[in-house]
Batch of 4 targets.
Target 1
Amino acid sequence: MGAEGVLGVGVVGTGWVSTEHIRAFSRNPHTRVAAICSRDEARARAKASAVGLTKCAAYCRFEDMLQDPDVRIVSICTPHHLHVEQAVAAAKAGKHILIEKPIALDLAGLRKVEKTVREARVKTVVGFVLRWNPLFDMIKSLLAQQTIGDIFYGEVDYLHGIGPWYGQYAWNIRKAIGGSSLLTAGCHAIDSLRWFLQREAVEVMAMSNRSRSNTLGYEYDPNSVTLIRFADGTIGKVASSVECSMPYAFNIELLGEQGTIRNNQVFSRKWPGQSGWATFPTVLPDSGDVTHHPFFGEIDHLVECILADKESHANVADSVRTHEICLASEISATDRKPVALPLK
């Protein structure tokens, strides 16, 4: 703990999502943002000023921020290709970590972060922030009550056109930074499917493509369909598109032996007399705007894990499984054959 009896946080990256991390850490009574790091120190100072931080160090070297004794938690909000190096360095420095997805863009990087975090024994949360969305809370409650019985099929779709109008577009279209349709964004859908099903994936089959015109200039296939077989025979499907021309959509469909959940609509044989969908008012995951995402819940959860010395359900160890499905999907689409999990 710092001099004020709270955990100091160092935020690396000054983009769109960093603002939401800063807001959430600033609201939690057990944390304060002690440092911001950017390649340009002036940008770090500008970010601190913009969010109203008066006692916040500014760094242009990540290594220097890690040496700051006030920094106990590191929040990684940088472009994807920097995550492995920064997460490894933070873990070796003994810092707890909030890391935006994806953890890594390849299997070697994924394994490196996994191993380093395990050996460092620091607490981690990976930025699958939708796990704290109110609709997700409602669905998890319905599943716990066996409202639709045992699930045999699950489908989650991530459809979000990311073009010049979107903040991360300039680097998102590059293969070396964006990675794939799933790694750059669709991994939210993969993780959500895992979160609802709570089953072990054993095989992946996928196809991917890009529009013939490719007017957005993606260096990788921005559209993919991934089929997943789970150990108990349950099957899942995830469609991901970051090239589509449509309003943002995050569709959830879970088919059980006693009913079906379709977003915030439910049909159950356990409710006698029901003749149509029951619709529940809640907050839907229906926007790509990061200000819409439940970062308060995610960051409060990380702080609770640190203070109670317990592991998060969204830690690196769990999130590796989501990432393996994403990587296996790309391999399958390229090789045109199924890929077994876990990846060797």
Target 2
Amino acid sequence: MRLLLSAALCFSCFAAQAWPEKPVRIVVAYPPGGGIDVMARQIAGKLAPQWGQTVLVENRPGANTIIAADAVAKAPADGHTVLMTSDATFSINPHLYAKLPYDAERDFVPATMLVLLQQLLVAHPSLPADNLADLIRLAKAKPGAIRYASYGSGSQPHLSGEMLKYKAGIDLLHVPYKGISLAVPAVIAGEVELTFSGIASSMGPLKGGRLKPIAIGGAQRSPLLPNVPTFAELGFPEVETHAWFGLFLAAGSARAVIEKIYVDAKRVLEEPDFRQKQLVDKGYEPVGSSPGEFASYIRKDRENRGRAVKISGAKAE
């Protein structure tokens, strides 16, 4: 037994020392130009000199992150192909799709959660509600008259909006748009009254008076918006608005390689200048969780999102 354990440890050490033996590919499950893509390229640029290899970013958008996830699940488990995706892949999709081309639990191993981000409930300035209590009173007085935008059935804004409806006992009209970049402009244009949006994409319109904040997700207020209360402090902790970005490898990847990716990515997140300017100032909460911590978090998150999907009645589009 000791001999087998020693051999396993030696192999693990060798795997970490030998890796990477060639360029590393980070497969991003979203199109170029978005927040997760920008972050992937920034992190890749910092990991390349640490690893002594080129770190390439390959965008594989489509099918609600399924295309990218499937590509990584079927890639060689040698640590040279890494998936960078959001909570949609592992927390939401397993509840939306009756069948996926991979098993979200069995076919991947988490390396680290990079960041957590909370979304705001924002409103058009003309809406006669400046806080959540006002919004709830207005919605009860005019059932179905207030519209909220999302970027599709089962998207984070859809789940958050339906959970708010369920917990507050109100009726809001869901208006799905084809893409994350269309929901906020729809509110600014007055096509709909509400949406849930990240701080980065909301800050400009908020400062310009083209949107107004109602509430934000999370356990604590954002330091960027200290006057905006959380849903939790307003009595609605079940209205979860968070998303996260993380790194994953194909199941069977060497433990030492997974740990190295975690440690090196965490080191990038802890660089003071990068942490402040590229993450905190843009509304991201740096995390850098260990593989084990990340796996535990995903299990709980998947369970919570399952309840939200059931309440929303969301189905894969």
Target 3
Amino acid sequence: MLERIERIGKEAAAAIEAATGTTALEELRVYYLGRKAELTTILRGIADLSQEDRGSIGSGANRIRQELEALLERRAAELDAAELETRLAADRIDVTLPGAPVRPAGHLHLITRTTRQIEDVMIGLGYRVVEGPEIEHDYYNFTALNHPPGHPARMLQDTFYVQSHPELLLRTHTSPVQVRAMEVQPPPIFMIVPGKVYRRDSDATHSPMFHQVEGLAIGEGITLADLQGTLEEMLKAIFGEGREARMRPHFFPFTEPSVEFDVSCFQCEGTGVLVGGERCNLCKGIGWIEVGGAGMVDPNVLGFVESNGYDPEQVQGFAFGMGVERIAMLRHGVPDLRRFFDNDVRMLEQFP
């Protein structure tokens, strides 16, 4: 399959270089990178491959996809410039008319781009993307995730409930999809869940609506070391090579043991000091940046789906979650989460 992926890359690169117009180039983009493209189909099927093949085929397919995207972008710029020159040479310009600047084409929102980048990374590691409802049952959002009655997260000051149906609420995390997915698929399971979540928070680093990506891996013999390795590979792909992952003890109701995970600072290379001797303003001089929470799935959670093959005595695994806005803020230096939702074009145009 690796040979086929390389052939697709060479074939696509040759076709892109030979494209004579932007219309033909767009057709090539759809043909080689669209939803029905062969390369896309290969990426979607990585979860079905054997464990030893997932890493090499996933990384190879992602590399080819990224190379083709860069080549398409460069070739589009060349063709746009050539077509503009042709029009300028052929058109008669009335210099007495006021200028009408060309309106720039739109682009994906930074949150959407960050989410898709995380999805691409995890698909390359053999995970599949799963979605679930944003209006959730109390059972899936709390009970099946080991939140006892009276837990603070269940309180009105933290959670939005549907007034006419007290058992319904706006999900406070994407973790409920873990239980829903395990109810319909026996182990092993490797999945991520991107989506919107809702909490009663609003300040520079919190919003009543924000985005999370949840990850879940359940099977035989999965350990905390596997979690560390997965986090390191993911964080390297997001923040750059050379990054390291650190785990610190924490508590979450649905994992045991629980950890918070950090990434080594990519601004000061983990030293805490910038060039010139100043303290790093990004990591506050400690060399690490907090990213999200994780841990080994609590046996009590597996107990709710034990009848579907998730016997805590036979299988185990890990879960992790992180906020998409936080990743985007760290990577692009955005100081206030609310700027993502202000719809201020001046801010959004900084990230074409």
Target 4
Amino acid sequence: MCYDLQKGGNLDKNQLIRLTVREFWRVVMNRIEKARAVKKTPLVIIDIDGTISLHYQRTYEIFRQAARSFDLPEEIKNNLADYDPCRYDYDPRKNLLQIGFQESNTLGEVMKFWDNNFFSNRFLHLDEPIAGAREFTRIILSLGANISYLSGRDEQNMGEGTRAWLKSHDFIGNHSRTALFLKTDLSITSVESKRVAAAKIKQLGEPVLIIDNEPGELETLWRQFPQAATVLLDTPNSGRPGTLPPQTLIIKDYLEINSLYG
């Protein structure tokens, strides 16, 4: 695990959080029971990047490849090879400046190389699951809720790698009770793509829990499904603002939640 709570998603830690870890399972089970009472399938909506997976090793390997692909000074090549993967930010440009890059065409080309490879299938297998995430999804399925994975990743460039990663880490496996929704229109934002996907998810059942690491995207989905409980993963994010729902639990991983189940 690379990050800690203080390095996470630029949140105001002083805001009022009305849902505690100890209350979490009581609230979720209550929502599940309410969905069943009206003959609907309870659904849990879970984002992927920064919510069940971490990107550090993906970025690290892309820059190692860049060091071999570009004519860079030896010092910078060595700095790239020795740089701690855990130090890479959501946008790694400032990390490259710390390593020794100057604002230049070369920096722009290296960042373009990162962008083309980061948002592709090629390196997705290097992502690491967030601690306890897989076990958490197993608990959710055991409670009778289905899971909809909802990501701003695009189907065209990241669909194959995303499915392979989810399967290899047993987030999907052979479960027919999981679904994956990815962006199909490259011209829209992640927020808008999730708003569009919400209409499809609604046809599958009753959302009882929404989990994301982007406050704005969590807010967008909650406004579509205000009956759902909400959890925000405090991991590195885009920094785009959002107003958290009034009963949002903020966590850095799933270990404490899992330990209090049952």
